[in-house]
Amino acid sequence: MNEVQQRIDALVKGNHVVLFMKGTAQFPMCGFSGRAIQILKACGVNELKTVNVLEDEGIRQGIKEYANWPTIPQLYVAGEFVGGSDIMMEMYEAGELQQVISAA
């Protein structure tokens, strides 16, 4: 595991809920990242760690390899990859995302 992967691994495993996104929770820089934040707020997530991939090219590329998932945002809960904004939306509408977050 290279240095970037180790940094990503530490972020994923060291925080309950982590969203790798474009921009910040206050200022999302793409619609998908903005939607992901809104979904997490609707789930009542208080402890959210966000990582702005636009500030670190290594993480921006490395996160795609980490989960073998080509797009950003990416949500991790309790060290497990959940998915991107489309999957988050589907899970939220089905009531599954709330369960994953509260169970973890």
TrEMBL record:
Superkingdom is Bacteria
Q: Where does [2Fe-2S] cluster bind?
A: C30
User: Metal-binding among the record's keywords?
Assistant: yes
Question: Which keywords does UniProt give here?
Answer: 2Fe-2S, Iron, Iron-sulfur, Metal-binding, Redox-active center
The record, for InterPro entries, names: Glutaredoxin, GRX_PICOT-like, Monothiol_GRX, Monothiol_GRX-rel, Thioredoxin-like_sf
Q: Where is the Glutaredoxin domain?
A: 17-82
Q: What one GO molecular function would you report for this record?
A: metal ion binding
Pfam families listed in its UniProt record: Glutaredoxin (PF00462)
Query: What residue intervals traverse the membrane?
Result: none
Q: What family is this protein classified in?
A: Belongs to the glutaredoxin family. Monothiol subfamily.
Q: What is this protein called?
A: Glutaredoxin
